[in-house]
Amino acid sequence: MKRFQLLVLVSAIAAGAIWYGFYRSRHTSSAAVAGLLPKETLALIHLPDFNRARAELHKTDLYQLWQEPAVKDFLQKPRTKMPTNGAVGQTVDEIASLEMKDAFIALVSVESSAWRMVGGFRFKGDDANAEKIVTSWKRKLLGSGSDVKHEAVDYQGRQIQTDSAGLVILSTVRAGQWYFFANGVEQLKPLLDRADGRMKDQATALSSDETFRAASQHMPGTYAALAYARVDQLVEKFTPATEQGASDRMAMIRQIRSFSGATSFDGDKIRDTFFVGMPKLAETGNLTRVSLPIATKETFLYAASFLNLTKEMDLSGPPGAAAGWMGGLQSITNALSANGVTLEEWKSAFGDEFSVLGDWPATSRMPALFATLPVKDAAKANKILTALGADKGEGADWTHEERNGVHYFSTASSGRMFSFSPTIGLSDRILIAGLDADSVEGAIKRSTGSSELAGSKNFQNAERALPAAQQAFAYMDLALIYTRLDAALRPMLFMSAAFLPGISDTVDLNKLPAAEVIAKHLGPIAMSQRYDKDGYVAESIGPVTFYQTILGVGAISGAATMFYQHQMPGTPRTPSNSTPAPLITPAGSPSPSPTESP
Description:
Layout: H1 2-26, H2 31-34, E1 43-49, H3 50-57, H4 61-66, H5 69-80, H6 87-98, E2 101-111, E3 114-122, H7 127-142, E4 149-155, E5 158-165, E6 168-175, E7 178-182, H8 185-195, H9 210-216, E8 225-229, H10 231-238, H11 241-244, H12 251-254, E9 258-266, E10 269-277, E11 299-306, H13 324-338, H14 343-349, E12 353-359, E13 368-374, H15 378-389, E14 399-403, E15 406-410, E16 423-426, E17 430-434, H16 437-446, H17 457-464, E18 472-477, H18 478-499, H19 515-519, E19 524-531, E20 535-542, H20 546-567
Antiparallel strand pairs: 1-2, 1-8, 2-3, 3-7, 4-5, 5-6, 6-7, 8-9, 9-10, 10-20, 11-12, 11-18, 12-13, 13-17, 14-15, 15-16, 16-17, 18-19, 19-20
């Protein structure tokens, strides 16, 4: 019996050890890095395991799209125009050979506009190889000219090497399997004291900071990259003292204590998690998604959130003083005020839940876009819209008619390229604004039924992949968007090539991949936001995430605009038979060869 009990005990210990090893191998933490940094650290970026993140990236839909033969064939010509000369691929391979872990860079202080920064990473393997790679990186950063100065300082048995070229100063030191760097020797000394165990008081480390720990609790157990910032302290340091006590327009930003965000890989999907530590802005309740029945099986975009109009948006400053979304909300309150409508009257007529929908049938050349608000009091809502429609300040000529108990307000667009007739439909339960009368009338009819989109498998799977949304929810079908864009734009691209022959110098449109080749690697993106204890948490998942999509669309739009301007007649262009200028590389450095992918 005793032998059996001993066997059970040994088995349990072995199982626990195996489980702990697996847990440690699959979970990342910023604790090791946070234990090295000072408590007053203002910002941090952490990459826990480069090779593992790279392996997980290769399993994603995004990477599989990159590896499609048709895509690689199409991108071959544009890639020859990029003057990278394989430098990025070589650096990625060098990082992989180091088996880099816990790579980080941190802003530890800002003093008199001088940024004090530190960073580092752990490596595995041959010390000499690590020294060689780091020396190569420093040479690429600073060059190898006669103006580069080198100094060495001994500190507690470690040699800190400082290299400088003009205003650029880089101090580096190796401590065992750690490499640390900073823009000054003094920043490295506390880091070395903690790494070597001379400074053991954890109360002075970032890991003991309550704000950092609170933000870390909202981050995923495993991530590929993490960013953290003490927003309140950064705002205080970068806002002029003359604005500190003013009735400023940054009241909401000043309430933010911290920001933390992490990107992780979830099978073939990418997941973003963001946390903003701040008090809850308003008690709005949870989303009801009252507008969801409008969405059809051909809806590519559905987003719902709360429209919080407040008196504070009636700013007394000059026109244009507000910017971004705050400026858009201000324009709404200004329009209401100009027509004698108070915010109290607006809020008694309409609910706060605002939604945007995009519907693109296969038979339509252009998508139908809608904006909605729930209606609390139809009579008051009709009175407000009538007052706004009577305003001819901008030359708008609104017409009003009632059909089947629904009020429709329409006007003709002044656009020259496209003919729209912006229309607002008002029923006893919802307001729907769209680009034309027919689409708005169809949306009004669907608003009382069941949603085709909510019943689709794609929507249900995307929704289940995230926590329940409280303050905001968004859904985007990338495959549907790309398929419709391809059908609409492919003929235009070939037509434009006839008028802009310079396009053929950069891309071969005959190799443009078929829509189905791209679409099979795309799919739905979903985003949900909620308030959790001490701040707002937003999560997004998809082949790319919601926020990555927004940034990507902005970058592509900017690049397309620059490319179009470059191709316009009269714009100087590099001859097609010229070779791109190579990157400036140190004398004697081998020319890196291009690689396929990270």
